[in-house]
Amino acid sequence: MLARPIKNLIRELRKLPGVGEKTATRLALHILTAPPERAENLAHALTEVKERIVPCKECHQLTEDSPCAICASPRRDRTLLCIVEDQVSLISIENSGNFNGLYHVLGGRLSPMDGVGPSSLNIPDIKDRVRNLGVREVILATNPNVDGEATALYIKRLLEGTGAAVTRIARGVPMGGDLEYADSLTLGRAIDGRGTF
Description:
The protein is α/β, with parallel strands linked by helices. It folds into two domains: 4-52, Helicase, Ruva Protein, domain 3; 62-196, Dna Topoisomerase Vi A Subunit, Chain: A, domain 2 (3-Layer(aba) Sandwich). The chain contains eight helices and seven strands. It has a five-stranded mixed β-sheet. Strand 5, helix 7 (146-158) and strand 6 form a beta-alpha-beta unit. The longest helix is centred in the N-terminal third of the chain and has 17 residues, at 36-52. The protein is elongated and about 65 Å long.
């Protein structure tokens, strides 16, 4: 029988995405048997990330400084805006090395069945950003699944009349897949081969 603190740790680890009972148990036992400083470093890293990381006031990505390094960089093409669902998608596109514009992180995707509407996401300020930055092209890089497509269509309609071209990433990413799991080459080709939406 496991002691209560170990059970509590396993329970908390299971709340992480992709972590099941066996993985949570292995992680908990590893933390327990590791040198004390490793557990302390992990605890410190968790506390620090919760205390110091904030959403960028411009693009909504997670950062230590607001505006973030991407929004503050004079080397980024401010006429290109890539709209992504989450931080993981932004990281995946950045790692492809094929995009040098700015981002807008939605914080999820529209999902009426789950009660996620436009006001639940970082959608209301998109139109103002496009106009204020003089964006000439908005790239919709939501995941190619039903909710991602619905989100892209909603944003496309929202941006009508702004003068910005609205494009969609190419289908190099498989339908029903997540950007998080696509390799850099596939994502790079999807960005390069984007088409009008």
